[in-house]
Amino acid sequence: MNNFFRISKLPILLVLTLFFLTSCGGWNPADSRDVPTGGIDRAKKNIKEGRGISLKGLTGNRSTTFEFGTSNPMWRATFDVIDFMPLITVDYAGGMIITDWYTDKRAPSESLKFTIRFLSNDIRADSIKIIIHRRVCQQKTDCVIKKISSKLEHEVRTAILQRAALLDEGKIDKKVEDKKRKKGFFGFGRSSSREELENQDKLNKRHSGTKKN
Q1: Residue among 199, 208, 115, 104 nearest 157 (CA)
Q2: How far apart are CA 140 and CA 198, in angstroms?
Q3: Is residue 109 a contact partner of residue 137, using CB atoms and an 8 Å limit?
Q4: How many alpha carbons fall within 13 Å on the CB side of residue 187?
C-alpha cells in the first residue's frame, strides 16, 4: 500500500477513535430488528488494497471478478478509504457496499457499521449516501443497535470524494498522455521514442557543424 493510502486512511481512523471516545451517554437504543440486513450478494473475501473482489450471485453460480482498479473512481476511492474495515456485502450492480462491524480497542463494547450507497457515478456529494449504525453490547448476547447521524458521515464522504477526484484526474492525465503519444512529438503521426529523438538531435548537431566548416 502506498503512502497516500496510509495518509488518507489515518484521518478516518482518528475520527472513528474520537467518535468512540466521545460517544458515551445521550444515546437511545433501538431494537436490532429495525436495522436492515445485508444486500443481495455476499463477498467471498474482503477487499485487499482496493484491487479487486470475487462476487457470486450476479451471474448464476459462476463467480465474477470485478477489477475495481480499472473501474469508476468513486468505487476505487471508497475501497481506499475504508480498506481497514472488513466488508460483508459488495453489490456493484445495486450500487452498495456494507462493512462488517468495526470495533476500536479503546471502546470494545461499541461497534460501527457503514452502508454506502452510490446514487450516481458523478464525483459529487449527492452521489453517495452513507448510513451508519452503532451497536452497543453490555454483554456478548445483550446488544442494541441504532442508526445514527453524526459528523462522521461528512468526514467519510469528504475523504471518498477527495480521493475520487485525484483518481479521476489521474485517469484524465493518462488519456491526455496517450493522445499525445498517438499524435507524436510534433502533433501528428506516431510518437517518437527517446532514442529516436536523441539520434535526431545528434544528426542535427553534425549537420550544423558541417555547415560551419
Answers
A1: 115
A2: 71
A3: yes
A4: 0
Q: Is 96 helix (H, G, I), strand (E, B) or coil?
A: strand
CB 43 within 8 A of CB 89: yes
Per-residue cell: 79: 475501497
Could you tell me the three cell numbers for 117? 450507497
Instruction: Enumerate the domain spans of the chain.
Output: 3-174, 184-212
Grid-cell match 458521515, residue found: 153
| Contact present, 76 and 159 (Cβ < 8 Å) | no
- Three-state DSSP at 57 gives strand
Question: pLDDT tens-digit profile of 163-205?
Answer: 999 988 886 555 554 554 454 444 444 444 455 556 666 666 6
Full-model pTM: 0.54
Instruction: Compute the distance between CA of residue 28 and CA of residue 136 in angstroms, rounded to an integer.
Output: 11
- Which of 45, 65, 35 shows the shortest CA–CA distance to 144? 35
Locate the DSSP E strands across 119-194. 128-139, 142-148
Query: C-alpha cell of 81?
Result: 478509504
139, three cell numbers: 454483554
147 forms beta bridges with 133
CB 156, CB 81: distance < 8 Å: yes
Residue with grid cell 466488508, as numbered in its chain: 87
